[in-house]
Amino acid sequence: MKKTIASALVVALVSLTACNDDSNSNEESMTLSNKDKAVAVLNSIETGDEQAISYINPLEYTQHNLAVGDGLAGFGAVLQALPEGSARVDVIRAFEDEEFVFTHTDYNFFGPKIGFDLFRFEDGVIVEHWDNLIATSELPNPSGHSQIDGSTTVTDLDKTAENKALVTDFVDTILVKGEFDKLANFFDGDNYLQHNPQIGDGVSGLGAALEAMAQQGIEMIYTKNYKVLGQGNFVLSISEGTLGGAETSFYDLFRIENGKVAEHWDVIETIAPISEWKNNNGKFGGL
Q1: How far apart are the C-alpha atoms of 64 and 42, rounded to whole Å?
Q2: Which of 78, 80, 3, 10 is nearest to 278 (CA)?
Q3: What's the rounded Cα separation, in Å, for the pair 50 and 196?
Q4: In this structure, what is the dihedral angle of CA atoms 65, 67, 72, 73, given to the nearest 10 degrees?
Q5: pLDDT digit of tens for each residue in the chain (287 aa)?
């Protein structure tokens, strides 16, 4: 299956550069939302759906996964390298914010992984991709949660801007500036569901985890926030920093309830050294 879609990618580099007069294909593409298209592209990694490749611009596809070569050719090369029949894709959450779509996915992609993917669209096709991946934890966290369970229902669409502003403030005040005396401004008491594999529920669970890390001489430092995206009660923050001194990319997904942070998922990925990069677009380029 993977060879089929990888071949389709190669064909796309040629055939999609020309004007496509396939009216049925164009009509189908026009009826799908950008969110639907992004999910279809992710699912195609497992299913081999060749139609999904038409949702990617073959001439302008910028890749920010540093382990993947640029453009459709780089995507195809990764698919060719996957062990036959190994890929599994389960998109748990998908959200749309103007030209961006971001997803939360349970993968088997060179081993079990949890990932956030971010796609940027122009004229109805994908032109840019970022992601963060981490190995799936074998055990639940101290409160019994997995990295992907929890709420999936999008509500409060009229509060998207308000919720994005709250998360922007939280990331800047608490995560970047470290003003922990202001934590109470962002939570409803100790009510806070946590899906990080190492941290328990509640603000108290977060505090205990940070204290344990400090005792081991491990610092988690956020130095810069690049992007805050949201749809209704879900908001994704993309930041750069260090964990234990290693350059790190932080993707944090928050669920907001009644103006407070109620639930949190994350993927924390160590940024590979430049010598290992397969493209020069940067982990946060374009954000």
Answers
A1: 16
A2: 78
A3: 35
A4: 170
A5: 444 555 445 444 434 443 344 444 455 566 899 999 999 999 999 999 999 999 999 999 999 999 999 999 999 999 999 998 999 999 999 999 999 999 999 999 999 999 999 999 999 999 999 999 999 999 999 999 999 999 999 999 999 999 999 999 999 999 999 998 999 999 999 999 999 999 999 999 988 888 888 889 899 999 999 999 999 999 999 999 999 999 999 999 999 999 999 999 999 999 999 999 999 999 999 99
Report the CATH fold assignment for 2-136: Nuclear Transport Factor 2; Chain: A, (3.10.450)
> Tokens 């550069």, residue?
17
For residue 138 the two structure tokens come to 């074998």
Fold of 157-270: Nuclear Transport Factor 2; Chain: A, (3.10.450)
